[in-house]
Amino acid sequence: MPEGPSIVILREQAAGFVGKTIQRAHGNSKGIDFDALAGQPLLDLRSWGKHFLIQTPEVALRIHLMMFGSYRINERKDSPPRLSLEFDDSGELNFYACSVKRLEHDLDREYDWRGDVMSAQWEPAWALKKLRAEPDTLVCDALLDQTIFAGVGNIIKNEVLFRIRLHPLSTVGALPAAKLRQLVAQARAYSFDFLKWKKASVLKQHWLAHTRKICPRCDIPFHKGHLGKTRRRSFFCTNCQKQYPAPAALTPVRSDSRPRSQRTPPAS
User: Fold this and answer.
1) C-alpha–C-alpha distance, residues 48 and 196, integer Å
2) Mean pLDDT on 44-65
3) Which option is the CATH number for 120-236: 3.30.70.260, 3.40.640.10, 1.10.8.50, 1.10.1020.10?
């Protein structure tokens, strides 16, 4: 599933269509009036988290690429598109295997831009307030909560937790104040690192935890698990990533080494 930085790249790549007129719209998405889109000028292209937003004077469209969605600019795939927009200069924008939803024209009423980690309107204090209201939430789930960190996906989650040395099974309410602020700050900072590396086609070279087998700090095997309510894959080191609160120590079970014949039988 593309994460927020990848949608920013899509927005930038498609920016040349802004101001042009849609000559023809078609696709196999349900609930979309394709005929009504024809003749509409494209006013703006925006992104919020993992949502790509297309705005015309009368309607806005939300594209969510889901797990296997893709797009093509000025070219096509063999498979039928969910949405295809053809413009007055023969350019076209095509989306495949994705969700397409009609929204009201006023996107500022639809979205709170303070929650988008890539937005200029991002407000870390607002994210901190929402996190503090959910003290029992695991940090591996909190980072994937799009109402708090819109645009953060599983790659960013794993890399941020490794970068700040935080165990994914830590609870939000147990984090020291400085560590909670660090979590919020790095969710945004790593997202912009992701964007830079993705544009340079070197993103995977910079992964330190995601899909890795050995911790680069401790030189020991990473743990891997489908953790939290989201059940998304987590890659983490139990040596350098601290868990808050610390897991309770298990009480060892003592075995009775006496022969069975000498043991006291249980009370009836």
Assistant:
1) 18
2) 96
3) 1.10.8.50
